[in-house]
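During the reporting period the student researcher (J.K.) took over the structure-prediction task from the postdoctoral fellow and processed the backlog of single-chain submissions. One of the processed entries is reproduced below for the supervisory committee.
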Amino acid sequence: MNSVADSITSSHAAAPREAPRTPTVALVEDDLSVQDCLGAALGARGYVVRPFDSAEAFLRSAPGFDTLCCVVVDLHLRGSSGWEVIGGLRDVAPHSGLVVVSAHLDVRSVVRAMLAGASAVLEKPVCLDEFLDAVRRGCENAEHSRRQERLRIDAGERLARLSAREREVFDRVVAGLASKNIAFELGISIRTVEAFRSRILSKTGARSTAELVRLDLLARGKDEGALPPPPTLD
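J.K. obtained the following structure tokens:
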């Protein structure tokens, strides 16, 4: 049996799908020779490169960042530092991967960058193989983040179909309460609880209590990869 995550995705199968987008990398680097070198390496791997020579230039272009797969930023830029870029990512490109480069690294900066979500912190001059691998991982992180957001939204939309009373029953079902206990808590009959459970399954598209639990966790933003697989029915 397919998982709730799969059924959430497939529930929109009839809608036209977007054509695959070429991965786009923002390269925030004020040393133009480094910018050219890294940009050429990325271009040779099939990435679309959007170069910026300052944090200000990057942040001014923020409205067009919804498709970025990764941001590469030098911490030490002329004008505002690379930390300004990193600090603004949550608002302008929340699902983008992040790679940090710098000629002057210390332990504190590395830890701070990793806590900000960097897939790698590289010291200049960077090894191109390490750099390209870091960007690849950043793009993978971005795709995973976007998928999780789609799953969260779709799960939330499914749960929004439930009436207030159905949601009361749903919350108790996913908490592990048996029908008789739900009936006692809500002051209704067991038969009525079973009718509610049937309607909940129908409205959400789930096929078991296990799938309802997964749906609830996805709606709460739980990472799909951390969830146990749903039981398979013969």
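The committee noted the following: Residues 1-20 have pLDDT under 50 and may be disordered.
J.K. will present the remaining backlog at the next meeting.
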